Amino acid sequence: MATLHQPVPVKYFVAVLFFSSDYLSRARILLEERWGRLDLEGEAHPFDVTDYYYSEMGGSLFRSLFSFDQLMDPVEIVDRKLECNDIEIDLALEGNRRVNLDAGYLDHNKVVLASAKEAGQKIYLGRGVYADLAGRYKAGSYQPFEWSFPDFRDGRYDRELLAIRQRYLDQLKEKSGQV
Question: Would you tell me which of 113, 128, 140, 144 could form a disulfide with 148, CB atoms 3.0–4.6 Å apart?
Answer without folding.
Answer: 144
